[in-house]
Design brief:
Its EC number is 6.5.1.2. By secondary structure, the chain is an alpha+beta fold. It folds into five domains: 57 residues, Orthogonal Bundle (Helix Hairpins); 230 residues, D-amino Acid Aminotransferase, Chain A, domain 1 (2-Layer Sandwich), CATH 3.30.470; 92 residues, Beta Barrel (OB fold (Dihydrolipoamide Acetyltransferase, E2P)); 147 residues, Orthogonal Bundle (DNA polymerase, domain 1); 70 residues, Rossmann fold (3-Layer(aba) Sandwich), CATH 3.40.50. The protein contains 24 helices and 24 strands. The chain binds nicotinamide-adenine-dinucleotide and zinc ion. Nicotinamide-adenine-dinucleotide binds next to helix 1, helix 2 and strand 3.
Length: 667
């Protein structure tokens, strides 16, 4: 291949990876490999400037803008960062800075490189007016409503000495705890898990429904202040002042006077960063003085006064021994690689997920291959690629099975879905056992003393094939079981008995309707009050329930139309489970709000929504569901529905804040 062909090939290849990375949040190669290819292209371009293509990834910021949001032109371009992977490249950077500044003294500020999405927040007269993504660096998506759901982001800056208009930038992220909760919820309802917090964050910030974004408890670390006239002399000053103003500046930054101190910072955080509430993938080293930054300037893609040092993502090579196929509660089939144990980032890895059939095809796996496993931002290690240099002849190709490995039923793959699943809901053992495990979990029927092994045993003995069978269990049935002492038998039966007191919303979650997670079950329970009303509801009626969309509505309708499910519910009913919603008893506190009507919208600092409702009713007020001309007050929280606000304004309904509501109570 001649240099021009090579440049063409690399350009196409890198643009392809970038497209996947930014638009579909998937990576076909590791970031390290991507950056190596980019460096190779950049080197070739320097040698052959005539062949540089217009669409070269070396001089463009990677993202794009999407159709779903209004696009906004940045007042100051939002650039990327140059990156390095080793101390030598870092020393080279330092050398360039030193030369560029003609040996003047200088300082660096080191920060962690937070692994999320870059956000830009505009303030006018102290008020947050816009939140914008980086996009292609010149224009980004206006995602103001979503950005406003970030609790740590002040919506209003009171300080007097601020410019009329200014901008702060930072990294929006999904805290690891939110990420884990979200995946737990998805697991509960049999949905595909999200790969890593960064993808989850970039997907979440681009959602249309900011109510859903609010629930995901996103956060943002602020690391940059911008205004037309520079008001700070150094980056350090700006960080201190922004913190003072109430912005969420991570306290992890440090001033360094030379590259040795920078290296010490890098070493310190290499291990320490794993204790932070979010993923980080490196360190950002920035020149402290703004005047000196001006001197060094920018390339088309990144500032010359800053650089990112990326921690090499830990990767190991090991033998692929076999692939097993796990069947989930909802019939999802997940291929899992069984590996020769290998040490990776301090833990021994024996298994790695391969996600689905597409991934098997992409990797082109053979049993006996040596594969690279990486932990990256992911919780479960994954196979990134095959070490082809070690591939032997006559290996057996890994082929995704056509039949369920547990029950033999032909697998199904719905159009447009990546996953295969086993449709034999009623007869496939792991699906049956999975449903029972789902049913007894703490958030559902909370039956203590029943573990996976016991369920397995009960199932094998033909004692329990459905959660409903639990309620038919008798002392005598369990008496003959090996290893069961009288005491544990009694405990199990007691636990089953106690579950009859569990509130309807938890029972509804426990019965395991597809896509009905704990929160959705709660919404449905309080809307319909009992299971019969819900079972009779049409798709249209279900869509009236707050936050219930097409997919859930359809799944609920399908569930209740199925004769087996009807019998299942009937059995649970006759066992005495609660199928009626018991409204919380309201304890009267006073009558300050007597005769007044309220609609609640958004989220609140001092109350959960339900508590706010109780508070209003306890003080004699009435809560309505929709805004009308007769309504007295709309209590608007931090992400109040725009349509409700608009309607209230039109109809002249008084809109009050949470604080104003609290003051009303104090009168
Ligand atoms: N694997 C793939 O297929 C693939 C494809 C495309 C890009 N990538 C990866 O993405 C990288 C390019 O992404 P990029 O352009 O967003 O660059 P980048 O993520 O390497 O660096 C720039 C970004 O860092 C973030 N950042 C975090 N903490 C910061 C701090 N303290 N100060 C300043 N900025 C901070 C900002 O969001 C900024 O936009 C590549 O180097 C590559 O590793 C991978
Ligand atoms: Zn099966």
């Amino acid at each position: 291949m001649n240099p021009q062909e090579q440049i063409n090939q690399l350009t196409d290849q890198l643009n392809h990876y970038s497209f996947l990375y930014y638009q579909t949040a998937t990576s076909e190669i590791s970031d390290f490999e991507f950056d190596k290819l980019l460096e190779k292209l950049s080197d070739l371009e320097k040698l052959h400037p005539d062949f540089v293509r217009e669409d070269s990834p070396t001089h463009r910021v990677g993202g794009t803008i999407s159709k779903e949001f209004e696009s906004v032109t940045h007042r100051f371009p939002m650039l990327s960062l140059g990156n390095t992977y080793n101390a030598q490249e870092l020393a080279d950077f330092d050398e360039r800075v030193r030369k560029g500044l003609n040996d003047e003294p200088y300082e660096y500020i080191c920060e962690l490189k937070f692994d999320g999405v870059a956000l830009s927040m505009w303030f006018e007269n102290g008020v947050l007016t816009r939140g914008v993504t980086r996009g292609d660096g010149v224009r980004g998506d206006d995602i103001t409503a979503n950005v406003k759901t970030i609790r740590t982001l002040p919506l209003n800056i009171k300080a007097k000495n601020m410019p009329v208009s200014f901008e702060v930038r930072g990294e929006g992220f999904m805290p690891l705890s939110s990420f884990e909760n979200l995946n737990k919820e998805r697991e509960d309802i049999g949905e595909q898990l999200l790969a890593n917090p960064r993808n989850a964050a970039s997907g979440t910030f681009k959602m249309q429904d900011s109510g859903v974004v609010a629930k995901r408890k996103m956060d943002c670390y602020i690391y940059q202040f911008l205004s037309e006239n520079e008001i700070f002399a150094t980056h350090e000053e700006s960080l201190i002042e922004m913190k003072e103003l109430g912005f969420n500046v991570s306290p992890t930054w440090k001033k360094c006077h030379n590259i040795e101190e920078v290296l010490a910072f890098i070493n310190h955080w290499d291990t320490e960063r794993h204790n932070l509430p979010l993923n980080t993938d490196g360190i950002v080293i920035k020149l402290n003085s703004f005047a000196q930054r001006e001197v060094l300037g920018y390339t088309a893609k990144s500032p010359r006064w800053a650089i990112a040092y990326k921690y090499p993502s830990e990767s190991a090579s090991t033998l692929l021994e076999s692939v097993s196929y796990q069947v989930g509660r909802t019939g999802n089939i997940t291929p899992v690689a069984n590996l020769k144990p290998v040490l990776l980032a301090g833990t021994t890895v024996k298994r790695a997920s391969i996600h689905n059939a597409n991934e098997i095809e992409r990797l082109d796996l053979y049993l006996g291959d040596y594969v690279f496993v990486e932990k990256g931002g992911e919780i479960i290690p994954k196979i990134t690629n095959v070490d082809l240099s070690k591939r032997k002849d006559n290996l057996e190709k890994v082929i995704f099975p056509e039949n369920c490995p547990e029950c033999g039923t032909s697998l199904i793959r719905k159009e447009g879905e990546a996953n295969h699943y086993c449709p034999n809901e009623k007869g496939c053992p792991p699906q049956i056992k999975g449903k029972i495990e789902h049913f007894i979990q703490r958030k559902a029927l909370n039956i203590e003393n029943l573990g996976t092994e016991t369920i397995d045993l009960f199932y094998k003995r033909g004692l329990v094939k459905s959660p409903a069978d639990l309620y038919d269990l008798k002392r005598e049935d369990l008496g003959g079981l090996e290893g069961f002492k009288e005491k544990s038998i009694q405990n199990i039966l007691k636990g089953v008995e106690k579950s009859k007191e569990i509130p309807f919303k938890q029972v509804l979650f426990g019965i395991g309707i597809r896509f009905v997670g704990a929160t959705v079950a709660e919404k449905l329970a309080s809307y319909f009050n009992n299971i019969d009303a819900m079972a009779k509801a049409t798709q249209e009626e279900l869509l009236q329930v707050p936050e219930i969309g097409e997919r859930i509505a359809q799944s609920v309708v399908d569930f209740f139309q199925n004769a087996d499910n009807q019998e299942y519910i009937a059995r649970l009913k006759s066992a005495g489970l609660k199928f009626t919603h018991e409204a919380i008893e309201i304890v009267v506190e006073g009558d300050t709000l007597a005769g007044k009507t309220f609609v609640i919208s958004g989220t609140f600092q001092n109350f959960e929504r339900d508590d706010l409702k109780i508070k209003i009713e306890a003080n004699g007020g009435k809560v309505l569901s929709g805004v009308s001309g007769k309504l007295n007050y709309l209590v608007a929280g931090s992400e109040a529905g725009p349509s409700k606000l608009e309607k209230a304004q039109k109809l002249g309904v008084q809109i009050i804040s949470e604080e104003e509501f609290i003051t009303m109570l104090e009168v």
